[in-house]
Amino acid sequence: MDSHLKEIRLDGEIAYDGNFLQVSRDRIQLPDGSISHREFIRHPGAVVILPLLDDGRVLLERQFRYPNDRVFVEFPAGKIDPGEEHLACAQRELEEETGYTARDWQFVCTIHNAIAYSDEHLEIFLARGLTAGTPKLDAGEFLETFTTTIPELLEMVKRGEVTDVKTIIGAFWLEKITSGAWSPA
């Protein structure tokens, strides 16, 4: 159906192979037959958790992100380990980062947050029936958790205080889910 838009890999190399990411450089054939190159990041994928407390508030994190040299407001999230099921990863990350566990989990959707230069995919889950516990942060991981209402979170997005794409998309999903307009996948 979209074959007239497809680019074909001819060959390539790994330009950088790190502990977490790989950068690939491929030589490709464009739909018109000409040759070009694509450089992109290979990422193992991640989960995002939308933790909804029984009182309707949401659980968020504040975490410093080195590439942008600032603290961001985000939903809990984390990298999927090799062979790890997406739901198991979401459950692990919620407990590690926030200490909370959830009784009810629902898959919401998959998003691709940087399609021009990365194959990263984010699997979004709604977590309800939360029970507080003690975080188990990884070595070198520093963050704070806080709660807010969905309307206040949306105001933070509107004011430009929340710019993280996964958190913005999650906030919009939560607004639709809690209003009854949308159901998780």
How would you explain this protein's 3D organization?
This protein has 185 residues and is an alpha+beta fold. Helices cover 20% and strands 40% of the residues. It folds into 2 domains: 3-42, no CATH class; 46-179, Nucleoside Triphosphate Pyrophosphohydrolase, CATH 3.90.79. It is built from 3 helices and 10 strands, in the order βββββββαβββαα. The strands form 3 sheets. A 4-stranded mixed beta sheet has the order 7-4-9-8, sandwiched between helices. It has a 3-stranded antiparallel beta sheet with strand order 1-2-3, with no helix packed on it. Strands 6-5-10 form a 3-stranded antiparallel beta sheet. The two termini are 25 Å apart. The mean pLDDT is 97. This is GDP-mannose pyrophosphatase. It catalyses: GDP-alpha-D-mannose + H2O = alpha-D-mannose 1-phosphate + GMP + 2 H(+). InterPro entries: NUDIX_hydrolase-like_dom_sf, NUDIX_hydrolase_CS, NUDIX_hydrolase_dom.
Topology, pairings included?
Layout: E1 8-17, E2 22-29, E3 35-42, E4 46-51, E5 58-65, E6 70-74, E7 77-79, H1 86-98, E8 101-111, E9 122-131, E10 144-148, H2 150-158, H3 165-179
Parallel strand pairs: 4-9
Antiparallel strand pairs: 1-2, 2-3, 4-7, 5-6, 5-10, 8-9
Helix pairs in contact: 2-3
